[in-house]
Design a protein that fits this description.
This protein has 102 residues and is mainly beta. 0% of the residues lie in helices and 25% in strands. The protein is globular, with a radius of gyration of 14 Å. The mean pLDDT is 80.
Length: 102
């Protein structure tokens, strides 16, 4: 939307619950939570609302992944397609509210 609150655009026109969008540092992508395939998982899409891609698959472990945080350089500790994930906690089925240290 514009700074004055007009021209609002819905970027996720899906029947599922989509929430907690987070812009990449360069403004080209948005990470968000969605229940499109069951419990909440992380997705990434282009800022023009194209190509939403599921990047976590914790549902298969009986868990959930929510509240993404982009690294300062706009990358992840996994590949953009969700492969090569790195567990950074002792509870691999529930990782919420991550934050990068300065």
């Amino acid at each position: 939307m514009k700074a004055n609150g007009t021209a609002v655009t819905n970027l996720t026109a899906h029947a599922a619950f989509d929430s907690d969008p987070t812009w990449s540092p360069d403004g080209s992508r948005i990470a968000f939570n969605s229940t499109r395939n069951g419990p909440a998982e992380l997705y990434v899409m282009n800022a023009d609302d194209s190509s939403p891609t599921q990047i976590t698959f914790y549902n298969s472990l009986g868990g959930t992944a929510i509240h993404a945080d982009w690294s300062p350089d706009g990358q992840w500790i996994m590949r953009k397609d969700g492969s090569n994930q790195v567990n950074v906690t002792n509870i691999p089925t529930l990782e919420t509210y991550p934050a990068w240290s300065r």
